[in-house]
Write a structure and sequence with these properties.
Distance between the termini: 47 Å
Domain Carboxyltransferase: 1-187
GO molecular function: ATP binding; hydrolase activity
Shape: elongated
Number of domains: 2
Order of helices and strands: EEHEEHEHHEEEEEEEE
CATH class of the largest domain: Mainly Beta
Largest sheet: 7 strands, mixed
Pfam families: CT_C_D
Structural class: alpha+beta
CATH topology of the largest domain: Cyclophilin
CATH superfamily of the largest domain: Cyclophilin-like
Keywords: ATP-binding, Hydrolase, Nucleotide-binding
Helix content: 10-25%
Number of helices: 4
Strand order of the largest sheet: 5-13-6-7-10-9-12
CATH architecture of the largest domain: Beta Barrel
Protein name: Allophanate hydrolase subunit 1
Number of strands: 13
C-alpha cells in the first residue's frame, strides 16, 4: 500500500489489485475515520477526502485492514436482460463459444460493482469469471440507454445514451440512473448484481 497526496484535502491509496481495493473500501466505509468527507474507489486506488488533517488521515488509513471476501459481501440485485446486443456474436467468437454460452456465462456469474465513473450511475462490474473482452476497434457515437456491455474484465450497463466502445451483448429496461430517485444511482461500490435472461423481448 502506498499513500500519495492529492491536493491539500485528500490522499490517494494505491493498492495491489481490484480485490484489495474492494476489501479496503469495504473496511474503510464500515468504520470511516473522523473528518472523512468522501471515499472513491477505482481499479487500483481509493481516494479519501477529509475536512481535517492529512497527517491524521494518513495514520488512520495505514491502520485499515482490508476485509477478505468483500466481493461477495454487498446486497444483491437482479437485472433482467434481453440478450440481443449487436456485438453478442463477436463476443462469442472472441471466446470461442456460442452466443447461448456467452449468455449462460454472463448470467451464471455474480458480479460486484467495483467502482463507478465515466457517466453518472455507470458501474464497473467485476466477477470471479475469466472475462477479457477487448473494446471495439471503432467506438460507437451513440450507445442506447440500458445497453449491457463487456470490456476487459468488466461488465456494465449504460445509464444514458452516450458514446462508447464496449461490446454490446444485451439491454435492460431497468433505470440504472434516475435523478428523481433517492439514491439516483442504482449501482454503488460493493453492490452485487446478477443478470437474468429475460428472453428475446
Amino acid at each position: 500500500m502506498r499513500l500519495l497526496p492529492s491536493g491539500d484535502r485528500a490522499l490517494l491509496v494505491e493498492l495491489d489489485d481490484l480485490d484489495e481495493v474492494l476489501g479496503y473500501y469495504t473496511a474503510l466505509t464500515a468504520d470511516p475515520p473522523a473528518d472523512v468527507v468522501d471515499v472513491v474507489p477505482a481499479a487500483r486506488t481509493v481516494l479519501v477526502t477529509t475536512s481535517g488533517s492529512l497527517d491524521v488521515l494518513s495514520r488512520a488509513l495505514r491502520a485499515v485492514t482490508p476485509i477478505a471476501g468483500a466481493r461477495t459481501a454487498g446486497d444483491l440485485i437482479e437485472i433482467p436482460v434481453v440478450y440481443d446486443g449487436e456485438d453478442l456474436g463477436d463476443v462469442a467468437e472472441l471466446l470461442g463459444c456460442s452466443a447461448a454460452e456467452v449468455i449462460a456465462r454472463h448470467t451464471a456469474d455474480e458480479w460486484t460493482v467495483a467502482f463507478c465513473g465515466f457517466a453518472p450511475g455507470f458501474g464497473y462490474l467485476t466477477s470471479a469469471g475469466s472475462w477479457d473482452i477487448p473494446r471495439r476497434e471503432s467506438p460507437r457515437t451513440k450507445v442506447p440507454t440500458g445497453a449491457v456491455a463487456l470490456a476487459g474484465e468488466f461488465s456494465g450497463v449504460y445509464p444514458r445514451e452516450s458514446p462508447g466502445g464496449w461490446q454490446l451483448i444485451g439491454r435492460t429496461s431497468v433505470r440504472i440512473f434516475d435523478s428523481t430517485r433517492e439514491p439516483a444511482a442504482l449501482f454503488h461500490p460493493g453492490r452485487r448484481v446478477r443478470f437474468v435472461d429475460a428472453g428475446r423481448g
